[in-house]
Amino acid sequence: MTNKNNPASAPEHTNTGDGVLEKMAAFLIKNANPSIVFHVKNDILKNITEKEKKELQDQVMREDIIQRIVACQKENGWLGNGFHGQNKNAGPYENQEVGVKYLGEKLIFRDTPVLKNAIEAFNTVKPDLFGDGDTDCNRYAAAGTDIIMASCVARAGYEDFFDISREITASLDSFRRVTEVDSVTDIVKIRKRRPERVNPEGIAYVFNEYEKWPCRYHLDILAHTKSWRSKENISMLALSFQKLLQDNGLDYFPAYCVDIGHLVGCCGAFREGMKMGVDRDGTHYVSLDLVEYMCRCGLYDLVPQLKKEVDTIYDSVDEHGVCRVAYDERALKGMGTYSGGQLEVDWRSRTRKLCDVTYRGLLILYYSGLRM
Question: Are the C-beta atoms of residues 134 and 144 closer than 8 Å to each other?
Fold first, then answer.
């Protein structure tokens, strides 16, 4: 990170940031949604009182989306009429996956009944993602009900309540697989499909059954759990991302699929040649969610491309503590199955949007090792 007072002589990274975190925290405490204020005071500043927690929780519980989620909860604890995101009978937040993840990030008290009961519902409700029984969690690479469920548990902070150790191990094994093969082409069948907008060549890489490959859900699980963390596992994860981020020489992204009698896409499988952000019209837009989760896993010092993104975020913070980085808005707005980290109730005001961006920037800098 560049020292803003003397950029020419400063080291690339230090543990202090010239008051940057303090300025960001102050801006958020003054302007942000109660959920963000809680996380800043509790997770970063570590100076919140029980009285403040209760007051903030009361404010959060009155928000419209929270009330909609509470209202859609069934007697068995399940949220709404869907599992993997919205459908014709389930709204964008009134479904189990998104509802749990949203509550996990928004609520101040983890044991709030609506969230606790939703997590307990995973013990009794067994959703079928593909409609083929979907009971063999090892059959499909980067796909399956088990990893979606585990990502919900992890995001909600229930690792110590609900056993997801098998899915944590599978997440590590999936990233490790990248380091064991020369290329993903070693573990797929290549099939032609009708050309699609995201894949003009019409190429589908169909994973062999009982193979492993990492996806966004695996990273979500690791980013929000602790039991797996060791120097060896973190080093392996860094090596896996270093390999995934290498240029694979292709000028298109093949579709990554599994075969359930017909081809379906994986759950956000990471592609060889992946990018840390989006380049469009000469501007680089940071993917704040990807950068945050990688930093949460302890990868800042180990993956050069990640370090570059984080340093860009650091250099974008203005004198008022507002993060002004160019970012991929589609990956931050709202909250869904594969993206979204919006904790503000809406973005009708520019300040609320800046609060969401600045909050994610603050988390990224904090988990990269920057301190007050």
Answer: yes
